Amino acid sequence: MNELAWLPTDAINTVSLTVSLVVLLLVLLLWFFMNRASLRANEQIALLEELVDLQKRQNSLLRRLCEANEPEPMVEKTSEVIPNEDDDLVRMVAER
What we know:
The protein has 96 residues and is mainly α. It is 71% helix and 0% strand. It has one domain. It is built from two helices and no strands.
């Protein structure tokens, strides 16, 4: 029952205090790196959200630019084209 009976009481207190301090330091070190990783992730998320906003603005500007430069629709004469039998055959053959 008393495995540590050969150690003096002061030594047991010192070992207990040392183990407690080591565990505390490990917990603080783990907290530091977790907090740092969380902050970096939050910064990356903010940057990604800003990029999405900029891309949306660029897309809207590009859409407006394309609409402004869109050529007038030309009226084409629709003439009936008589399909050749060869054209039908070519359409049936799959291209590779």
